[in-house]
Amino acid sequence: MAAIFVQADSSQAEARVVFLLANDEQALKDIDERDYHALTASWFFGGTEEDYSKKVLGYEHPIRFAGKTLRHAGHLGAGKGRAATELNTQARKYHVPITISQPAAEQALRIFHARQPRIQQVFQAGVVESLKKNRTLIAPIPWGFDVDFGGRRVFFERWGDELFRQAFSYLPQRSISDNTKAAGVRIMDTIEDIRIIMESHDALLFSFDERYLDSYCPIIKREMERPINFSNCSLPRRMLKIPCEIEIGYNYQELSKFKQPTPTQASETRLEVPITKEMRFFPDSVYGDTKLEKLIAESEEWKQIRREGYEG
Question: Where are the domains of the chain?
Fold first, then answer.
């Protein structure tokens, strides 16, 4: 039998950690029920979640890509310059036909923080208060480690925006990185003949004989979804379980979603639509920076921000 690649990918992992640290239970519920990046894009650029949803369209719309990138910038306390640079850089990297200016990025960030104020008021404010005590942040503990505290980092940067940017990213990124590595250790201990080909922050890539798909994939999913313990981190919270998606393929370029078959479906194929098709961008979807700025300026969210005078 042939060897097959299996990738275990934590679903929107850092966003879930940020929502937990922000005590935003509604966002944690919504992220499981909606295309959250498409929803965010609709706040910035108008339209509806369905207009940009990957599940509806079957591919990554450039506007959804912009919403996802700007949301990530908002989570980490980016200003307009950094947010615009990040979006434009990522767009060039992945050949997405979209650009944004600093004024348009600033408008998007103001909309974002008005819609989800707990990101600034609870999560980011909590991180700053922790830094004031001893410039130290303590991360949560991944499943299976008999320790009192997670990873610890002392920040020596000068007090200001750059220090805060690094601090805002530490807890979400360290949480997910530790969780992925710990899951890899547990999986290797449980399945002796499995090979980890690559670890990429929130995902693990394995290779093994395809005959073992139905027995190995549930173990991989179970270990990736073990709850993370936030009880003793710098911002104490409840346990958090992050869903894991399994993808398989005979080469790394074309992975497809895997579904555990029922006994009556055992002989049927488990390969769905290839990711390469889902990640296709259409150049005629948007027409550059002017289009983006016009979309933001005309969105109902931005008009409400201007009426209410929200400063962010």
Answer: 25-114+286-312
> In Å, how far are 92, 150, 223 from 39, measured between CA atoms?
23, 33, 30
Task: Count Cα neighbours of 128 within 13 Å in the Cβ-side half-sphere.
Answer: 15
Spatial neighbors of 4 by CB under 8 A, at least 6 apart, are 207, 208, 209, 210, 213, 248, 249, 250
Please write the tens of the pLDDT for every residue from 48-71: 999 999 889 888 899 999 999 999
Share of residues in the chain with pLDDT > 70 (%): 87
Q: Are 65 and 95 a contacting pair, CB within 8 Å?
A: no
d(CA 194, CA 208): 6
Q: 101-111: buried (b, 16+ CB within 10 Å) or exposed (e) per residue? A: eeebbbbbbbb
pLDDT tens string 242-263: 999 999 999 888 888 887 665 4
Q: What average pLDDT does the chain have? A: 87
Q: What pLDDT does 311 receive?
A: 57
Give the span between the Cα atoms of 5 and 209, in whole angstroms: 9
CA-wise closest residue to 209 among 156, 248, 256, 242? 248
Single-letter amino acid, residue 8 = A
Burial class, 154, CB count within 10 angstroms (exposed 0-12 / middle 13-18 / buried 19+): exposed
pLDDT of the residue at 301? 74
